[in-house]
Amino acid sequence: MNVCVFFQNSAINNLCAAFFHKKAFFKAILQGFSISTLLFSEKVVPLPSVTRNVLSMTEEIKLLKGNEAIALAAIRYGADGYFGYPITPQSEIMETLMEEMPWTTTGMVVLQAESEVAAINMVYGGAACGKRVMTSSSSPGISLKQEGISFMAGGELPGLIVNVMRGGPGLGTIQPSQSDYFQTVKGGGHGDYKLITLAPASVQEMADHVVLAFDLSFKYRNPAMILTDGVIGQMMEKVILPPQRARRTDDEIRKECPWAALGKPANRPPNIHSSLELDSQRMEQNNLRFQAKYRQIEANETRGEEYRCEDAEYLIVAFGSAARISQKVVDMARAKGMKIGLFRPITLYPFPVRELYSYVGKIKKILCLELNAGQMIEDVKLAVECRIPTIHYGRLGGIIPTPQEVLDKVEKLQTEQQ
Amino acid sequence: MTTVTETTVYQKPRLMNDNPMHYCPGCSHGVVHKLLAEVIDEMGLAEKTIGIAPVGCAVFAYNYLDIDWIEAAHGRAPAVATAAKRLNPDKMVFTYQGDGDLAAIGTAETIHACNRGENIVIVFINNAIYGMTGGQMAPTTLLDMKTSTCPYGRNIALNGYPLKITELLAHLKGTCLVARETVHTAAAIKRSKKLLQRAFANAMAGKGTSIIEIVSTCASGWKMTPDEANQWMVANMLPFYPTGIIKDETTNS
Questions:
Q1: Out of 3.30.300.130, 1.10.510.10, 3.40.50.2000, 3.40.50.970, which CATH number does the structure's domain A49-256 have?
Q2: A7 — phi, psi (to 5°)?
Q3: What is the pLDDT of residues A283-329, one digit of tens each?
Q4: Which of A169, A380, B171, B231 is the most exposed, having the fewest neighbouring CB atoms within 10 Å of its CB?
Q5: How close, in Å, is residue A274 to chain B by CA atoms?
Q6: How far apart are CA B98 and CA A84, in angstroms?
Q7: Chain A touched by B47 (CB under 8 Å)
């Protein structure tokens, strides 16, 4: 919430773009702004998941930007490679990795590619070798990666793609947005495929989701995306990084991923990675296999979080940074006596359909808060089968709504007919 | 009775399987595939090699050589190879790309992989045409040469000039061996094989990127018999794309 205030404050809004660059950020701090003034000017009530994680572990607590947490968590996870191309507001991911030089410690490869297209195809190549590889970018760059993501899905290759969203369309703005929801969960690239999509709402979750995304992508042999935005990428919070794990040896990879292209020993047929199949009968079978896998993912992997929903008559549904704003709104509305809760989808694909449907008959109205023109609302309506009136509120082009303006919308839920 | 002793003087390379090839009669791909199968096996690299297949006629290269393969998106083979090699420095990684794949859609990936001096081999098949899609203009199509998308001949004003990408790559510090050959005669096939052997040795020794261009025929795309295609290649392609070693920084070091 603090960061939302930080973004909406016009006096320091101009600094915001500068803060997308880490050095400028620290320079600003040295010049007299303190992190606490900028980022902790309001009381922070972390989401239950954040509190739980922090309290249950005794490891060192670090103060990190979301982007830095991604980079450091990847090293801790034992990732084999990162391939990226600079774009605001996520460049700190590669900058942090280059500063850390993990190739001298864990042996992780870090490479600045010539383009987003090259970077995702490097991920494709590394994944085909059974390696844990990742890339990151922001909206315009993610558009360029769609070809490679489709090839990974078609080739059933695991890997992590991080999208720190900014406002579009086109070159758009460098300010945060959630307008790539459709692109991420409805396809993005060509063909009938699905992308496992996680939406962190805190810096802690940025780190945690690196682990979860890699695990899920290898479990299902499917690419996974962390879909976040400039708010979560740039804000600093307390975070506990995952424990350091060793990178797998080639022998371990050959055992865990017998499909890996690591050179063909005499005793097995060649491992060939291709999404091409000119025989339509076989191509249909491939597609049916993918679809069966997606149904399995939908059955097993939905994740969501409730906040003050016990006796709620009204519900906000929001993900990522919009959920952090909504949490504040819920507290403000509750203070005024309104029975309202927040449901936060953590997996955007698979979408928590069953969890949302369980509110049918209990909730009078849903407000879907998104930093876009209304994208996730379609999935919310489908989930509740339009049996709960659902309205959308969102700001566009990089504007972060204030808790107060969302509260106004929430209060109107009680009076206005839809 | 006299005893007849048989001496094998030629055999199919061990790494070439029995899958029927989809290539047209007279196509150069089969010969280059055979050379790669021989080189990989003779150098003891069969269990270490990862091939990166392109999009184009050689998209199915993975069907014919019994090694591990990764099929790249169109033009992206050098990027795929970059990661495969960097993540597996002890492996032998090569790309096999046509002119459209390498010199049009994949120009950026090609130039930057070479500029980084990735320890890979790029096998570049230049037949001046898009074979797989039915004979359209390639970046290497000669001036006045007719294709289905320049049916009146390649025209400078309309299509620009044929791209000598191999000479361009020779300028990059990251490349160590840059050469052009053909496979239309027995002597040329031997020279091509030697170049491939040296290129593979360079990659394993970490000397940088080697690019071996094979000026090839496309009898179907050129609408000629295989014999006419060879003659046309010698008369028209080789004057513009002369064979020989363009850059070699591996012998004196």
A1: 3.40.50.970
A2: -75, -35
A3: 999 999 999 999 999 999 999 999 999 999 999 999 999 999 999 99
A4: A169
A5: 5
A6: 26
A7: yes
